[in-house]
Amino acid sequence: SQGWEGFAGGVWDAFLELDLGGPPVRCRIDAGAPVPPHAWWRWAVRRTVRPYSTSGRGRLSVAVRNVPVRRAVRRLLG
Questions:
Q1: For residue 54, what are the contacts with CB-CB under 8 A and spacing of at least 6?
Q2: pLDDT, tens digit (0-9, with 9 covering 90-100), for 8-34
Q3: Are strands 10-13 and 60-68 parallel, antiparallel or unpaired?
Q4: Most exposed among 7, 35, 58, 72, judged by the fewest C-beta atoms under 10 Å?
Q5: What is the pLDDT of residue 10?
Q6: How many structural domains are present in the chain?
Q7: Per the domain annotation, does 21 fall within a domain?
Q8: Is residue 27 part of a domain?
Q9: What angle do CA 55, 5, 15 make, to 5 degrees?
Q10: Is 3 within a domain?
Q11: Which residues make Cβ contacts (< 8 Å) with residue 42, sequence separation at least 6?
């Protein structure tokens, strides 16, 4: 995995924070073509990360989804 384990499910916006001696400066990250979604299993939880570019200004955001096996089985069985 690529360091995504610490993300809880939800939508995350990416930005760069610079500490230049004063108050921190936050810069949003402009996104071009995002990479395809990535999914993997960690114990009994399937994690899916889907980077995307927001509408309008095209900023980088990431949607993280954690689906436990129990929920996936319930969904399959109806």
A1: 13, 31, 60, 61
A2: 666 777 777 787 788 878 777 776 666
A3: antiparallel
A4: 35
A5: 67
A6: 1
A7: yes
A8: yes
A9: 35
A10: no
A11: 1, 5
Contact 13, 59 (CB under 8 A): yes
| Tens-place pLDDT, residues 41-60 | 878 888 888 887 777 766 77
SS3 letters across 6-65? CCCCEEEECEEEECCCCCCEEEECECCCCCCCEEEEECCEEEEEEEEECCCCCEEEEEEE
Q: Two tokens at 63?
A: 């949607």
Convert the pLDDT of each residue in 67-78 to its tens digit: 888 877 787 787
Q: Domain range holding 22?
A: 10-77
CA pair distance 12, 15, nearest whole angstrom: 10
What 3-state class would DSSP assign to 2? coil
Domain assignment present for 2: no
CA dihedral over 57, 27, 7, 1, signed as positive or negative: positive
